[in-house]
Write a structure and sequence with these properties.
Length: about 300
């Protein structure tokens, strides 16, 4: 019996296993993610358990944390530093603080989601995109729990929920889309450049002060000047900082504006502009993650 040796195929005709098996159509990728939905659920549960492991109060911290922070800011900006009479300041700060904590905690946990799960990435195959997605969903659970406290305090301070609160799901959807895009981008960067997380910590601090969490947009004047350039600071912040628009949206529909008697309606065009920005960030993040995930194994 003779062994037939075939000549090697030209490189152009050799099927690329990665191209044919791993790079699937976007629809197939979506179906794959749906097929792994139980894994996503388990990852979220694991993240929640790990966060409160060996904690006496456990998940109750999700309720206490924003309340304690609200108390600190209220004392600071109503007693130590007067806030020019912003009405019902605890609600003013809480409606912005809870979404910001959702943003900051998601950014930090999702950025390290790939590196922190290096062991399972090297051992088994599953859609890697589930890892930063699970980080966001676990923080979303904390956000919803903290919102219970916000709801209670809204009624305790005599504001309650108005018809304008119906905007909240759309604002939350915009924030989730925006955060997913950022999660995919920064988790990819952290897999390749391990100092990404340290830079992000500093960046989030600066981002916090550039977002109207403990101050209202109305505090800005109509004009500001930097290096000879004159601009409207509130308008510029809304355009370049999606979180500023998102935070202001929550505050508008749940608390109101400085000078208003209560919650007001969301500007549909402003929300649409922010949502379009969020979708663009999501698309960029998804593309960056999808084109890099096949390299995670060797980089980890």
């Amino acid at each position: 019996m003779s062994l037939e040796i075939k000549p090697p195929q030209p490189l152009s005709t050799i099927p690329n296993r990665f191209d044919s098996d791993q790079i699937q159509s976007q629809w197939d990728k979506l179906r794959e993610i749906v097929a792994y939905r139980n894994l996503l659920k388990n990852l979220v549960i694991r993240d929640l358990k790990a966060r409160y492991k060996n904690s006496v109060l456990g998940i109750v911290w999700s309720l206490l944390n924003p309340v304690l922070m609200m108390a600190v800011y209220t004392v600071l900006f109503t007693i130590l530093i007067p806030n020019d009479g912003i009405k019902k300041y605890p609600i003013f700060i809480l409606v912005a603080l809870i979404p910001w904590q959702f943003h900051a905690s998601t950014m930090m946990s999702s950025t390290g989601s790939i590196v922190n799960n290096a062991a399972i990435i090297k051992k088994v195959y599953f859609p890697r995109i589930l890892l930063p997605t699970a980080s966001l969903l676990s923080n979303l659970v904390n956000f919803l729990l903290a919102s219970i406290i916000l709801l209670i305090l809204l009624y305790a301070f005599g504001i309650g929920l108005t018809i304008h609160a119906l905007w909240v799901p759309l604002i939350l959807l915009t924030q989730i889309v925006f955060l997913l895009g950022l999660a995919y981008i920064f988790s990819t960067l952290q897999a390749f450049y391990r100092d990404t997380l340290m830079i992000l910590e500093v960046g989030l601090l600066a981002w916090f002060f550039l977002t109207p969490v403990f101050y209202p947009f109305e505090r800005f004047g109509d004009q500001a000047e930097i290096w000879g350039m004159v601009f409207n600071p509130a308008r510029l912040m809304r355009w370049v900082n999606p979180m500023a628009s998102i935070i202001d949206g929550y505050r508008t529909v749940l608390w109101g504006n400085v000078g208003s008697s209560g919650p007001g309606a969301m500007d549909p065009l402003a929300l649409l502009r922010t949502f379009i920005t969020a979708v663009l960030i999501f698309i960029i993040g998804y593309i960056v993650f999808s084109r890099s995930e096949h390299l995670f194994g060797e980089k980890l």
